[in-house]
Description:
Elements: E1 3-8, E2 15-22, E3 32-40, H1 43-52, H2 59-85, E4 92-97, E5 100-106, E6 113-118, H3 121-128, E7 132-134, H4 138-142, H5 152-159, E8 166-171, E9 174-180, E10 186-193, H6 195-206, H7 215-218, H8 224-231, H9 251-261, H10 267-290, E11 295-299, H11 306-315, E12 321-323, H12 334-347, H13 355-358, E13 368-370
Parallel strand pairs: 1-4, 4-7, 8-11, 11-12
Antiparallel strand pairs: 1-2, 2-3, 5-6, 7-13, 8-9, 9-10
Bound molecules: adenosine-5'-triphosphate (ATP) and magnesium ion.
Amino acid sequence: MTLYMGLMSGTSLDGVDGVLVDFATAQGPPIALRAHHHQPFEPSLRTMLLALNEPGGNELHHAELAANAIARAYAEVVRGVLRAGDALPRNVRAIGAHGQTVRHRPREFDGTGYTVQLLNGALLAELTGIDVVANLRQRDVAAGGQGAPLAPGLHAALFAAPGETRVVLNLGGIANLTVLGAQGAVIGFDCGPASALLDGWCQRHRGAPYDDDGRWAASGRVIESLLEAMLAEPFFAIAPPKSTGRDLFNLAWLDNHLLRQAHDAAPVDVQATLAALTIESIARDVRRHAGEAAQLIVCGGGAHNSHLMRGLAAQLPNVPVTTSASHGLAVDQVEGVAFAWLAHRFCERQPGNLASVTGARGPRLLGTLHPA
Ligand SMILES: Nc1ncnc2c1ncn2[C@@H]1O[C@H](COP(=O)(O)OP(=O)(O)OP(=O)(O)O)[C@@H](O)[C@H]1O
Ligand SMILES: [Mg+2]
């Protein structure tokens, strides 16, 4: 038995997903998932993290305190996962801990750029008594890569089928695609905004954390001129490797478009248009990179949004749409398992990135270790 834990908190800023996985028996799907525990962020921490996504005063001070707060929130999730999995700290070989992305600017400025995931890994090791592997994106960026997405390696291990092209779609704050080619080639990249904008607009106008099942969006009318203007964003036309985040797709970006295209639009129609933006940008990328795909396997919280799921099926009539659950892993567990897998790779001294995905100069060992 070799247990690894994965801790993921994505760009939706909804909270932390923790999983406990046994990789010793993970020869193929379904993997041996021992436990899953989700914990929402405290509103005050969420507010602090949202603020750090934008330039502000005394950033170093605020970032360090946020990194401590995240370590404490992660430690609580570790306790929840251990309880749920009936395991002890000494049973866990290592934790793969993502941290919270507040800036993602690979290859920019000086050519190397940076990506920032806030997490005090030393404090997490101190609080849990378990080895922590953190800073999982930095080495890929140092090697000229995007540092993202990192889940495609796990997607390939779990979902690839020889002789069949499959696409894995993660619907998080940002949507990302992994194309598993019939001959074993893998590409992967960020498509564009998903929950980050859908949640943000819903919070502003409805005071709800997200648009449950996409019902609000489904009751609106798509504003075609706004949709076209948003789809003209240059990011959508860039060829992979590429990645993005709240640095680009945030409410200020949306407000800018509204000002020019639809300043008096009804909020419900804007929500419908944002859902259409997510669906259309993904469908275009699937047609462009994997038109012959035998399956589109969806995971991430957005898979609970049946308005998005119906829209994808309608835009991709030749590609059957399923979810990771029909391959043995619940939609909310895939990203967490990816970070447990990255910790496993680190401990085995195996590379975690796929250079064909991130554009790095080659395979690299990802992460820094904080021994228990
Ligand atoms: N019942 C639901 N109806 C609609 N949307 C939902 C529902 N449940 C979850 N979601 C969406 O899923 C989001 C959380 O998804 P997830 O945790 O996969 O994203 P994330 O943390 O940003 O991860 P990533 O790293 O992939 O960006 C929520 O913010 C919400 O938008
Ligand atoms: Mg999440």
